[in-house]
Amino acid sequence: MPSRGNIYPEVRVRSPREQTWLVFKRNMLAMIGLWGLGLLALLTLLAPWLAPYAANEQFTHLLLMPPSWADEGNVDFFLGTDDLGRDMLSRLIFGARLTFGNGVLAVLVALVVGGAIGIIGGMSKGFKASILNHLLDTLLSIPSLLLAIIFVAILGPGLFNTLIAITLALTPQFTRAIYNAVSDEMQKEYLTALRLDGGTRWDMLRYGVLPNLSDTIISQTTRGLSSAILDITAVGFLGLGAQSPRPEWGTMLADAIELVFLAPWTVALPGLAILLSVLVINMVGEGLRQAINEVMD
Q1: What percent of the chain has pLDDT over 70?
Q2: What is the sign of the dihedral through the CA atoms of 271, 272, 275 and 277?
Q3: Between 256 and 205, whose confidence is greater?
Q4: Confidence band of 1 (pLDDT split at 50, 70, 90)
Q5: pLDDT number for residue 199
Q6: Alpha carbons 203 and 212: distance in angstroms, whole number
Q7: Coil/strand/helix, residue 81
Q8: Fewer CB near the terminus (10 Å): N or C of the chain?
């Protein structure tokens, strides 16, 4: 007698990653933030090809020209020019590379270094864990911006030194977040069972700890990236970061602060770029956290 086979249709089970993406897509604000983040990444990577002019190209006969929608504006300079006749749109696009791009780089380095220290500390006990705890408490008692300014004061002004300083200031935050997450995970029963079953520390790390750190890493990375952008611009605004004529957003803001009443667009545009960058990063981070929590629940 021929087999009737399986009468039930096969149901494809989505992976946790696919479920997270489906939940994330339903969040309109998160998707807007994702598109904004993609635009920032595009500007960072393709700035020389997207900017209509070079960042420091001067049009001395068109000083302080307002944006193109104003009565005195020019369509060739969509966002107007500054006090030296440089195109504001071009400088903002190149500034994305210096502000957002360097912020991403600082966060990635801090994540790798701080994550490694946090994992080692979280899987350790006794004297080593105690020393790490006290050291982190001391460093985290100092605001990251103040810590970055201290490092820049020691290393000297400049964008590269600012990048080093902000990476050093962010590393304790990643270390603390991942240390706490690993410590909590190590107390769970399934890892105790794995240890009693003869599992090595590498087995516990690979099969137990690392798969459960995604929420912590996403949360701390988005928070760290927002903090890095604000710190880079703040240090630049204070004259300790990127130096003129480099089009870093904080430096642009500092250079134009005296023109706030005469040419308000030269101040408003860099400030708006900073605000929107931090906003879209936080929107994506919050959307991912909500999606992960919903899938895990």
Answers
A1: 92
A2: negative
A3: 256
A4: very low
A5: 67
A6: 14
A7: strand
A8: N
Helical H runs in the chain? 16-25, 28-50, 88-96, 102-122, 127-140, 144-155, 159-186, 189-196, 201-204, 214-237, 249-256, 265-296
Q: In the structure encoding, which two tokens stand for residue 138, read together?
A: 């001391």
Listed in sequence order, the residues at least 6 apart from 81 whose beta carbon sits closer than 8 Å to its beta carbon are 59, 62, 63, 64, 65, 87, 88
Comparing C-alpha atoms, which of 289, 144, 165 is closest to residue 220? 289
Instruction: Show the tokens assigned to 140.
Output: 């985290």
Residues in the chain: 297
Token reading at 241: 């970061």
How high is the mean pLDDT of the chain?
Answer: 85
- Tokens 């500092």 belong to residue: 254
Q: Nearest to residue 271, comparing CAs of 291, 296, 251? A: 251
Q: Which residues of 15-35 are buried (b: 16+ CB within 10 A; e: fewer)?
A: eeeebbeebbeebeebeebbe
Give the Cα separation of 29 and 138 in Å (integer).
37
